[in-house]
Amino acid sequence: MVRFPRPLAWAAAALLLATSALAAYPVRFEDASGREVVLRAPPERVVCVVPAVTEMIVRLGAADRLRAVTWHDTYPPGAAGKPVVGGFSSPSAAAVRAARPDLVILSPLHRGLREALAGLGCPLAELGPRTLAEARQTLELLGRVFGREAEAEELIAKNDGYFRAVEARVGGIPPERRLRVMRFMGRDAVMTPGDDSFQNEIIRRAGGVPPRLGKTGAVVPVTLEEWQAFDPQVVYGCGTDREPLERLLHRPGWRDVEAVREGRLRFFPCVLTCRAATNTGYFTAWLASALYPDRFSPGAPGLAPDAVVSERPLDLGLEYVARARVVESRILDQVHRTLVVDLAEPMAVLSTLEGPRSGVATVGNHGLPPPSWHLDLGDMRRLALGVLGLDPGTTSLLFTGADLANLSVQRRSFRDLAVVALVTAGVRSNAVRTSRDEGRYYEPGTINVVLLANARLSPRAMARAVVTATEAKTAALQDLDVRSAYRPRRWQATGTGTDNVIVVEGRGVPIDNAGGHTRMGQLIAGAVYAGVREAVLRQNGIVAGRSVLVRLHERRIPPYRLVQALAPDPAGRRERLGELEELLLDPRYAGFLEGAMALADGVERGQVTDTAWFEDQCRAVAAEIAGRPVPRLEPLAGDPDLPPVLRSALDALLTGLRLRGGQEGPE
């Protein structure tokens, strides 16, 4: 075995030693702890508690080898629905053992877990990429471990392509014009990544200037003096950072920096900001476009010519469709994907984006990557049609922020009738409950549906098809318990507020009605319902049977906040967090909380009026957890915005944990 000088010793795991040129096993490498790891056969039952590594395994096409992950692993979708062993901070050793793994992947932060798994009888490998170079080397390592070397090379090349494109855009910015950028972290205090973190590498690659505090590590504290001395011009965080960022940065002194004064606070998906994994190049481009939008706009210097890169054909099985495909193109140096359906003859369509149109020869759906979101939709339409060679007068396009790589194609038929629904969907950032949430946006669409039938739909039938598709979409979101982005604790979402539908007139037997009571309406509803569910899974990793820990997070009730009332210090809170997560891995208590979530929604809708019986149930659950009688629940869940039923359920769990821990409860 070859050893490498530290601190890069663990990264050299990518340079595996095979026993022969024809056999990759046994595989030996040195992990992040400096321990030798020996894999004598390809792993088939992997438990991974490092989200960045889980993402890599899924992207390599080895999701079938994963037997359990953390509740943070809902992305990519191949990790969604896997059994959960707790959270990244406090994974359950018992749950890991129960998965009967032949390989456990953990990080150097999981010392307690390593000790608890002593004698498990399978390799324990510590992998936790801290730099972009280490992320690259980890991908190479995993590619060889799982026999996916070509896939690893492709992912690395994709990241490198983004880095080169960003450098071409921002490399010429002189030092004095580069923005000072800080990644915000922390919950009770302002924190940021250490000087050696990959997050600061990303800021530099995006053309920004990160702070240099003389501190190393994944997360380090920031003093008020350091904050004011750096005077950030842009501060960004991930989605869950919004509430603490706004609370902490509006205090005297902390608000007196340029980023806060000018309102330059940005938020990105946590799966991009918090991981050195397979999408670091993509996120770097997004961040760079947010910092310097003029460098990613038409007319910016040094842009490569727009061009079509590749096409993926689709077989829709409809005689009047001449050709259908998903086209990948390069526009303003960014990867765009477009669904393009060419009709054999011009037809009428009904578009909720453009209204009724006639003489349409092409319909489709164009995906806008995040670095293009600052552009005017009219400009983007012109650029997209230009690179695709489509006539604006005969083309009806929808636009979406979802990735067309996650397109769902659904076909439903009955006897001689058939319907095809082409669906994209994303629900993380702007899902709304119509009639409850405030309307703030206009275009483009998020959940987009293109409907084609093998019948000739009258104008009336096309309008009814829009209603039927909308009802089916809402049914899918409610069955998945997708939450409103504005008040997730209280409301299920009915859509995203920017959803659009195109219905194509079609050819075949004339049909004048596509409502829910008709056979055509039934086919439309079935195709759209299935399409929305599949597209939401592919884009957001949301499945109906996801862990209750994930569902708490979606309601912005993070478990780490719940345990603050149970322990005064960070170490104690970590211990209590592990206890709460372990409790919610028990199907009995997970089911209790899931029932409370459903009951809370019923109360909010006015369908349940008397919940006194549930209070009795909550006290019984608390007593069961505590192992002794509980005369009343302690108000430990706090937050007054919680629905009362859900707050009582959480109080029951937390009161039981407090009393089980030997602490005195209410008299």
Any overview of this molecule?
The chain is an alpha/beta fold. The model is unreliable at 1-23 and 440-445 (pLDDT under 50). Helix 4 runs antiparallel to helix 5. The longest helix is centred in the N-terminal third of the chain and has 22 residues, at 149-170. It contains 20 helices and 22 strands.
- Please give the share of residues in helix: 25-40%
Basic shape: globular
Helix count? 20
Radius of gyration: 26 Å
* Total beta strand runs: 22
Mind summarizing the main beta sheet? Answer: 9 strands, mixed
Strand content: 15-25%
| Mean of residue pLDDT values | 90
Poorly predicted regions are 1-23, 440-445
Summarize the helices and strands and which ones pair or pack.
Blueprint: E1 27-30, E2 36-39, E3 46-48, H1 51-59, E4 66-68, H2 93-98, E5 103-106, H3 111-116, E6 124-126, H4 132-145, H5 149-170, E7 181-183, E8 191-192, H6 198-205, E9 220-221, H7 224-230, E10 234-238, H8 242-249, H9 258-261, E11 265-268, H10 270-273, H11 280-291, E12 307-313, E13 321-331, E14 334-351, E15 355-367, H12 377-388, E16 395-400, E17 408-414, E18 417-424, E19 448-453, E20 455-457, H13 459-479, E21 500-504, E22 509-511, H14 519-540, H15 548-554, H16 559-562, H17 570-585, H18 587-604, H19 612-626, H20 644-660
Parallel strand pairs: 3-4, 3-5, 5-6, 7-10, 10-11, 15-16, 19-21, 20-22
Antiparallel strand pairs: 1-2, 8-9, 12-13, 13-14, 14-15, 14-21, 17-18, 18-19
List keywords for this structure.
globular, single chain, alpha/beta, nine-stranded mixed sheet, 667 residues, disordered N terminus, four-stranded parallel sheet, 20 helices
